[in-house]
Design a protein that fits this description.
This protein is mostly helical and about 525 residues long. It has a domain at about 405-535: D-Maltodextrin-Binding Protein, domain 2. It is about 65% helix and about 5% strand. It is built from 21 helices and five strands. Strands 2-1-3-5-4 form a five-stranded mixed beta sheet, sandwiched between helices. Strand 4 (about 520) and strand 5 form a beta hairpin. Helix 14 (about 285-300) crosses helix 17 and helix 16 (about 335-360) runs antiparallel to helix 17.
Length: about 525
């Protein structure tokens, strides 16, 4: 009897698997494999970035059990996954970035499944492909930052919540609560998902408010249960500054970023920011972005239940992030799945209208007009996809530069005594003390101190260089080596005429530092690292 039951169960699972696999899912699988290969190309070549190295160092601290060195400003999940990759593959930039690659791929799959459930298979495949071709999404999939993981949990939470709205059952509610909690452990802005859900209940289920809200509490309880252990640990470890830092995190930034956030009028800031924050950076390529906006218009006109849900998702996030003082296109990455799905909707809506008009039209001239319109629309979409691919390539290519911090750190570590330290001079986005610390940590016996002067990045804040103060800090920290970066040599730092050449003249005139030598130079012009020895 038990054998018969097991056999029946196996056949049932096989049947469900066979029904689930179709040409559209196979098409997505082929795309995902190609996409994975593209993400992995020269993944470790681009230099680590200021925000990225924080997570890499936290991963190392967790791996070593040095919990006192962890940056409790960030939730723990992303760093916790990095630890797993470090254990399996070793401590490296490549290992850390693979986390984003994995979550990028499964996020594309979740978008496919969400659009499949909401609309149909062809829209699902098109939406996942378009999301993958968004230059900003592709770039973030290649760095060890938390945004792509947030997109995964945000989209999963939205998918299960919408499934629950459609058919109130405990399973999607429980899974949605787990996704919500894990998303909060990825980035605190996941709380905005709760607002989306509440607004969606009011808009899509007005006749069932009491019933749904009484059950919705289960999702909140599960999410709270997931995050409570972290809240307790974080409070005990970081109680004195926890509230201030959480407020900072929810605002996403500090007053120093306000200049950037005031470049465009408030209501349309993100409408521009998502496609044209800089001349050379286009998070969503302009032609596909136009199609996405037309798709939002289509959903507003058509107003199916699924359309209303996506519009709620888009509008709630857009309004909340607009009201938050500090702004950047990375912050609104959870909007990108909506843009991809709306673009796919609009594309197939137009083709279906063209096909219907062609089928119902007898007049030859009118058929010719329809044919020309279809060709022109196809050319527009193909051009948009091509431009998006080009923008993606250009966006990645500008970061494919080599700054040999690893080689410079290895050189220094061979000659450092345990009580000696390294001073980094003039940090910027690709060159700071945490990056040297990361490579020092590759040698588990090394615990040398690394400091930097000035504290803030010279490509974003106006530096003030005081040679007397600098020498005093070198003596105080028992510095042996000073790391400097070429920075174009005579290229001035942010909002000042000061440049590296002028700083070197002051260093040489002091008589406290050695001169540049070939043995202590790493990389190639114009991105060389020069190591000077502090003579005391």
């Amino acid at each position: 009897m038990r054998t018969t039951t097991n056999k029946s169960s196996s056949q049932s699972l096989l049947t469900r698997f066979q029904l689930g696999i179709n040409k559209w899912r196979l098409g997505f699988l082929v795309f995902a494999l190609i996409y994975a290969v593209l993400l992995l190309l020269e993944l470790s070549t681009a230099p680590t970035q200021w925000d990225e190295v924080v997570h890499l160092n936290d991963g190392v601290s967790l791996l070593r059990g040095e919990y006192e060195n962890i940056n409790y400003f960030y939730p723990p999940l992303f760093d916790g996954v990095i630890v797993v990759f470090f254990k399996v593959l070793g401590v490296s930039v490549l290992s850390g970035r693979l986390v984003s690659v994995i979550f990028s791929l499964i996020s594309l799959w979740i978008v496919f499944e969400l659009a499949y459930r909401m609309y149909d298979a062809k829209i699902a495949l098109a939406a996942s492909v378009l999301l993958g071709l968004f230059p900003g999404y592709f770039w973030l999939s290649r760095v060890a930052l938390i945004e792509v993981m947030l997109v995964f949990f945000f989209t999963v939470a939205m998918m299960f919540f919408f499934s629950w709205l459609h058919k109130p059952q405990k399973k999607p509610l429980i899974l949605g609560g787990l996704a919500l909690g894990l998303g909060f452990l990825t980035k605190y802005q996941m709380l905005i998902a709760i607002v989306v859900m509440i607004v969606a209940i009011f808009l899509l289920a007005r006749n069932r408010l009491r019933t749904l809200f009484s059950r919705f509490t289960l999702l909140i309880i599960i999410a709270i249960a997931v995050v409570t252990p972290w809240l307790i640990i974080s409070y005990k470890t970081y109680a004195s500054e926890m509230l201030d830092n959480w407020t900072y995190a929810l605002q996403i930034g500090n007053p120093a970023k306000s200049i950037y956030s005031e470049r465009y009028p408030l209501p349309i800031f993100y409408l521009i920011e998502m496609t044209w924050p800089y001349n050379q950076v286009h998070p969503v390529s302009i032609l596909i972005y136009i199609v996405s906006l037309f798709g939002i218009g289509l959903l507003s006109w058509r107003r199916k239940r699924e359309d209303k849900f996506l519009l709620t998702w888009f509008m709630v996030l857009y309004i909340i992030y607009t009201l938050i003082p500090n702004k950047h296109w990375r912050y609104v990455l959870p909007l990108f799945p909506v843009l991809a799905i709306t673009a796919a909707n609009f594309i197939f809506f137009v083709y279906e209208k063209v096909e219907k008009t062609w089928r119902d039209t007898i007049n030859v001239n009118k058929k010719r007009i329809v044919k020309v319109a279809a060709v022109l629309f196809t050319v527009f979409i193909a051009t948009g996809v091509g431009l998006s691919a080009k923008d993606t390539y250009d966006n990645v290519a500008q970061y494919q530069i080599q700054i040999d911090i690893e080689g410079a750190t290895k050189y220094a570590s061979k000659n450092l005594n345990q009580n000696e330290s390294i001073m980094l001079l003039c940090p910027f986005n690709f060159f700071n003390q945490d990056m040297i610390h990361f490579y020092l940590c590759a040698d588990v016996t090394r615990k040398n101190k690394v400091s930097q002067y000035p504290e803030l990045p010279v490509d974003s804040y106006t530096p003030i260089f005081n040679i007397t103060e600098f020498i005093g800090l070198c003596k105080q920290n028992n510095v042996r080596y000073v790391f400097t970066y070429e920075f174009g040599g005579i290229v001035p730092y942010y909002n000042t005429t000061l440049n590296l050449q002028q700083i070197f003249m002051k260093l040489y005139d002091s008589g406290n530092f050695t001169h540049i030598s070939d043995d202590a130079t790493f990389g190639s012009n114009p991105r060389r690292i020069f190591i000077l020895t502090f003579l005391g």
